[in-house]
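Sample A.
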Amino acid sequence: MGEKIIYATQNSEYLAAAIAEKSDIPMGKIDWISFQDGEHEIQICDRHAPLKKQIIIVGSAENLRYYADIADLVSTFKQQYRATIVDVIVPYISYSTAERSRPHTGICPRGVYRVQSLFDARPRKITFFDLHSEGIINVGGREGIGEHIYSEPMVIDIINELKKENLDLILISPDAGRGKWVKSLADQTQLPHDIMSKDRYAVDKVNIGNASLKVKNKVAIIFDDMIRTGGTAIKAADLILEAEAREVRMIASHAILPKGDGVDAEQKMHDSSIAKIYVMNSHSRTQSISSPKFEIRCIASLLAKTIE
């Protein structure tokens, strides 16, 4: 396919470097120059290196800036450097659970429109990792451009490690939305599973249904695609322990863990009844986690396999 180079948005350089090492592809360098008004400039350091090469851009779209940076890099490499191919790997995209496009609700589906901007830049392929909404891969309207990679192999590895500890395990979905995934994981690992109910009644406010007696005397493993403020996971864990589970652990694909404005989600999770939390390094927040309750797993090998 020709020579390849990996570039990254500023928040994903740590993960791009790991993917470059796993795939034996060189990493290109970008300088990010910030201005006092909040704007920033993107400068490709070796301006001859990417000419007529296959470019892989790694970038987690954690907020509006990074959506724009990804789209800008695609356009830059296609137009200025005449790249033969530009592929994009998006380990995480920010997406509100309440912004699905529904008529007459007044809700602006910003996540949908932001993802559309990535497709509009017209890369050859966009690889997403554990999307909160699988419909995102169809936003661009071009069949075959979107690819969805699941965390399933890594989750199964974690579960098998726990099985070796001779723990009496049960898998738990904190809501019906993850129920299908949890059932599939349970079938593959030959474990029992249960699904709790969740009702979101306001922003970051949820009611969680009681845990069933299936969890009694077992080590319950909650699996969810992301931890934001931790409210859902903590309420679920408390109810599971009330149902006389021996212990609660958690596996999550994305660790957002906001900090500031009176919120410290990492500390909140650290102080919770959850004994151990396994998260994947799709979000830059994982690079500053200090709580010993967290165990961070690198997704570089999984993403490196998607590079063609």
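Sample B.
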Amino acid sequence: MATIKKKGIDKKLLFYIMLISLPLLQYAIFYIYVNINSFVLAFTSTDALTGVTTFAGFDNFIEVFRRFFASEDSYQFGIMFKNSLTVYGASLVLHLAFSLLFGFYLYKKGLGHGIFKFILFLPNIIPGIALLSIYKYAVETAVIDVYNMLGFEPIYTLLNGKDTVFGTVLFHNLFFGYGTQVMMYLGAMNKINPSISEAAQLDGASYLREFWSIVLPCIYSTVITLVVVGLTGIFASDMGLYSMFAMNAPAETRTLGYYLQRETLFYSTDKSHWPRIAAVGLCFTLVVAPLTIVVKRFLEKRDPMA
């Protein structure tokens, strides 16, 4: 008589559950819960003395609109918006032009491509605070000394000068983000079937023709992904200002992302300000979400590989 084996626990299923449980828990807490809680907060009001929370309707959004467009601080918010757009525009030009072209240079294994890869990846190895300290020391000493030695009108500071601080911070943001973009484009290019490039070379295609007609269409999805993701940075990126200046970034350099981060940290223990900050974040989302969808669909329709 054959014995009936008891069905045990599926070890593969158990392993799979254990593998995804922590990421799902993190997603549930730090994305779903946080976003739902922020949405609810935006429509509430908390008394500073009693801590009692009540429904506030759209009062917080009215306050946000007044602060941004109808208060003495409106001018400062205009500067923040302009700076945020400048950062995105500069990043877009740098990444679409120089990052793509230099990535193609590395893809074709140009002279020194190995050492260039190492140099571009280096900022991801060295701690950010160390790179920031080196950069601050360089621009406040070496750069100024060289500039003054060339006989130009003397300058004494770049990070504390009203006319130079934004450009100095912007250069830091672009310079240390450049390598990441190049390596991402290079990774996409390396996935292109080598036989396609070899066929183009046999047909006598120049490097420019290969880049424009073969490489760019093949990595188009990566390009539009980075362009679209960068749109969120208009309202979310602090341009490294908090790391460089903490809570005291000069008004000329502040961005919308830095404003939201600074407000959150400054009022981290005062619940009465949380609903207004949540309303600011929701307003930013209401602007950037449809913009991102529109730009994404617009670029996808122009995919040469579609």
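B remarks: The first strand starts at residue 44 and ends at 46. Residues 53-112+175-300 form a domain with the MetI-like fold fold (CATH 1.10.3720.10).
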